Known about the structure:
Layout lengths: L3 E2 L5 E3 L1 H10 L7 E8 L5 E8 L7 E5 L2 E5 L1 H7 L2 E6 L6 E5 L12 E2 L1
Parallel strand pairs: 1-5, 2-7, 3-6
Antiparallel strand pairs: 3-4, 4-9, 5-6, 7-8
Amino acid sequence: xxxxxxxxxxxxxxxxxxxxxxxxxxxxxxxxxxxxxxxxxxxxxxxxxxxxxxxxxxxxxxxxxxxxxxxxxxxxxxxxxxxxxxxxxxxxxxxxxxxxxxxxxxxxxxxxx
Length: 113
């Protein structure tokens, strides 16, 4: 099987997050945002994000706010309806994921259950 391009947006990327992601992408190749959920963290599951050039065979592939996104099918179950934002402040700066599927989250916002 090959990666499926999905017209359904699983995760929404805000304007601020899209601008930050674009600023982090190397200019010499076409990259996408890889999002996944893995075991670990304070609450049991944690988010991982990175930049990749090629999707895996069973990935969901879609575009949100001009950003191509790769999500494996298992992670898509946990991330459906989530929003990725980028916030900057005096005390904390970084990506913030708001996930309607999370029952509890830790203080840092990087893990959930």
